[in-house]
Amino acid sequence: MAVPPGGAPQLDTAKMQAVQDLEIEMMSDMYSRMTNACHKKCIPPKYREADLAKGEGVCIDRCVAKYLDIHERVGKKLTQLSMQDEDFVKKMQSEQPK
Q: What are the phi and psi torsion angles at 16 (to 5°)?
């Protein structure tokens, strides 16, 4: 694989498509989980009206905001841990006698 002057290898079209498909799948899963969790938390099982009541709407807004905030925080923490693991592996490889 060719490495451009910037140092990062270029992904070919098939790999890029796979990454995009995975991203779509992960976002779809996150949206589905968020929808189910917030619906279960904020909306009673017996619907009284066709539209959301004010309290239900506020609850949904807050639930979604919290869910997305936590999702972002977890993503950042996982990225940080992944980078630390990568650095550790590189350090261990450089310390091994050749």
A: -65, -40
**Residues 51-85: tens digit of each pLDDT:** 999 999 999 999 999 999 999 999 999 999 988 88
How many Cα neighbours within 13 Å face the side chain of 22? Answer: 6
| Domains contained in the chain, CATH given | 24-95 (1.10.287.810)
Geometric angle at alpha carbon 23, from 69 and 12, rounded to 5°: 140
Could you give the CA distance from residue 38 to residue 83 in angstroms, rounded to a whole number? 32
What pLDDT shows up at residue 97?
A: 67
The CA distance from 40 to 77, in Å, is 27
How far apart, in whole angstroms, are the C-alpha atoms of residue 98 and residue 96? Answer: 6
**What is the model's pTM?**
0.66
**If you ran DSSP here, which 8-state letter would residue 7 be given?**
S
